[in-house]
Design a protein that fits this description.
56 residues, mainly alpha, elongated
Length: 56
């Protein structure tokens, strides 16, 4: 894994942590319909990108 991929993976991990926190908050107080699904979809996309980087 090159330096650029490692940096991108670090950014992805930080974003994953933030998204997971936001999902927990939205589950506790669901004000906007569809927000939870959007956050979960974004988390899935980020997670798949992280897996691709790890496997390359």
């Amino acid at each position: 894994m090159d330096k650029k991929a490692k940096k991108r993976l670090a950014v992805i991990r930080k974003k994953q942590k933030d998204l997971q926190h936001r999902i927990v908050c939205v589950k506790q107080q669901n004000d906007e319909p569809g927000e939870l699904e959007a956050l979960e979809a974004e988390l899935a996309k980020i997670t798949s990108e992280a897996n691709e980087l790890k496997n390359s």
